[in-house]
Amino acid sequence: MKIIKLNAIDSTNSFLKKMTLENSVSNFTVVITESQEKGRGQMNAKWVSEAGKNLTFSVFFEVKNVLVSNHKYLNFAVSLSVFNVLKKYNLPNLFIKWPNDIMAANKKVCGILIENSLKGMHINTSVVGIGLNVNQIDFPVDLPQASSLKMLTGDNFNLDNLLHEIIDALKVNVDLLNNQSYNVLEDAYLKVLYKKNVPSMFKTAQNVLFLGKIIGVGNTGKLQIALEDETIQEFDIKEVSFA
């Protein structure tokens, strides 16, 4: 594992993706920065992180024998890697919020951005950006849902140790992915899916409210919600949110 440490960068994902285009990059190369000035989340959402207090890094790895149509299992592998590490630290009410936010005590502690390169019908490589709130205790007022490991446990965490734990867990789950152990990944993911089987109020992108419950993830990676009339509807990212 090669680790490239930078003091400040616009985006670790953008930096690492550019590296892969210009050079031969070894498997599980990591780019990490103390200060990420233009961090990105899902659908170009901004990721805010205090310098030196958190983990903001990206990792490159090769994917083998995984069809593009099976991309949801890659998401399962990545989000479970972070979840399984954090589970050891007794964070309260730890869950994965679809597709890959990590929640603890109903607050967001980690965001993940996955960007794949394709080769024909298969995923060839992946660059995964992970923003984990670790020792930061003050967040902007417009981010009321944000929290950190320190805020939830009262403890200071060693960033280097956490980084290595996450990469080690990622290697294990990417092996499962490459070996097509899809049922193992899906079963583990669904067991810790936030609000699964809990009746909840949702809001569509058109601000339509409805009652339903999350029951799983469809073949194309969309969120499956059972409605009051017992029909099942699937939603993509940004098409639905908790009301």
From TrEMBL:
Keywords, in A-Z order: Ligase
Keyword 4Fe-4S: no
One Gene Ontology MF term: biotin--[biotin carboxyl-carrier protein] ligase activity
Boundaries of every BPL/LPL catalytic domain copy: 1-178
Domain of life: Bacteria
Pfam family, one: BPL_LplA_LipB
Alphabetized PROSITE patterns for the sequence: BPL_LPL_CATALYTIC (PS51733)
The EC number(s) this enzyme carries: 6.3.4.15
Protein name as annotated: Biotin--[acetyl-CoA-carboxylase] ligase
